[in-house]
Description:
- This protein is α/β, with parallel strands linked by helices and about 280 residues long.
- The protein has one domain: Alpha-Beta Barrel (TIM Barrel), CATH 3.20.20.
- Helix content is about 30%, strand content about 20%.
- The strands form two sheets. A seven-stranded mixed β-sheet has the order 9-8-5-4-3-1-10. It has a three-stranded antiparallel β-sheet with strand order 2-6-7.
- Helix 1 packs parallel to helix 2 and helix 4 packs across helix 5.
- The chain is globular.
- The protein starts with about 25 loop residues before the first strand and ends with a helix.
Amino acid sequence: MTKLRDRRSLEQHPCFHGKASAHWGRIHLPVAPNCNIQCNFCNRLYACVNESRPGVTRHILQPAEALAALNRLLQQRKDIVVVGIAGPGDPLCDLDRTLETLRAVHALHPTLLICVSTNGLNLPSHIDELVAAGVTHVTVTVNAVDPHIGQKIYASVTVNHRLYQGLEAAKILLNRQEEAVVGLKQRGLIVKINTVVLPGINTDHIPDIAAKAAMWGADKMNCIPLIPVQGTPLAEHVTPTEAEMAFIRKSISGHMPQIFHCRRCRADAVGLLGEGDMAGAN
């Protein structure tokens, strides 16, 4: 397990702790462009300037460029406590780029917390490498724990260059997500479950996701309303209302502690939650 004695307090992570979000910032380094899953709400067009949502960035950085950007930012401000990789694809689909970046960050800035956000498909076999690279927090996006529902959310998953679809794809993903979360907790990492709320697809299923996440040992859960994206199968779906989201969070709070302050950050987010992206910080 990573030694945390000389690092920032784990409770300073602004995405995991609402009280920290008013004081402490993060930087997402967009070094991972590829993804091993095709979700029915994602169009993979990430070079966006004016959109603020996961999977969006102005530029893809090489690991060395990302480290240079981090070093510049740390000279400009003192509130950055977390370095994260959240895409714009899946960090473990671009494993070499992700690990190179994380190892360099941890070597140069060992007091910073390090965070990775992933769909979990490639996670089980790389947990120890993430721990060795200094990772303290992991977010795993779990949108279904019933493969019959999952097949409505995921068009395909790719494992070892083989494409899987339908029920088989959803079963593979779920099994790997469970193995991943359990393995992360066995190694002492902090785990958050992200769940995209998809009206008419998984809304009634979210209590089951929360119960399963609790059984796996996850620490917190973050329910995120769908952002309909043009050109996707779910482009015409409506986003849940604030009242609907409040009801969902309240109904599952007995299973898992809920996060209420998420800003659905870009893959190149910088600073306090909702503050901006990497280009705006330069």
